[in-house]
Write a structure and sequence with these properties.
3-stranded antiparallel beta sheet, about 40% helix
């Protein structure tokens, strides 16, 4: 067997290390982006829940801002407005990116509810 099953030593030595060094930063970046997206979806769900709670409370004549703040994520801003026979509530909350120094993402959720008959006017 000329040459037989022998390989030349050192032909591709260190290629795994080079590939790992090139691919690891991309893998970490994808992991951070995925975790930030999961965090944003969770914050979005909290904002939607707070907007629904506030819209229902305001439709009944209560102060929707007070009722919705307890259900919202920390740092959320809420606006309640009445237009005719409907109550509109918008909740905005910042989402911290896991990169640390990257700008924050803002998620927004809106809910609408019909005013119930006999509900008092909401002071704004």
């Amino acid at each position: 067997m000329p040459g037989g099953g022998r390989r030349l030593v050192g032909g591709d030595r260190g290629s795994f290390t080079a590939e790992l060094a090139a691919g690891l930063p991309a893998l970490v970046l994808l992991l951070l982006a995925g975790l930030t997206a999961v965090n944003a979806v969770g914050t979005q769900a909290s904002c939607l829940h707070a907007a629904r709670e506030a819209a229902l409370a305001a439709a009944r004549g209560a102060d929707g801002s007070t009722d919705g703040r307890g259900a919202g994520p920390p740092g959320a801003e809420m606006s309640v407005s009445i237009d005719g026979e409907r109550v509109y509530v918008t909740v905005r909350a910042p989402v911290r990116t896991l990169g640390g120094r990257l700008p924050r993402i803002t998620v927004v959720a809106t809910a609408v509810a019909a005013l119930e008959p006999g509900a008092g006017e909401l002071d704004q």
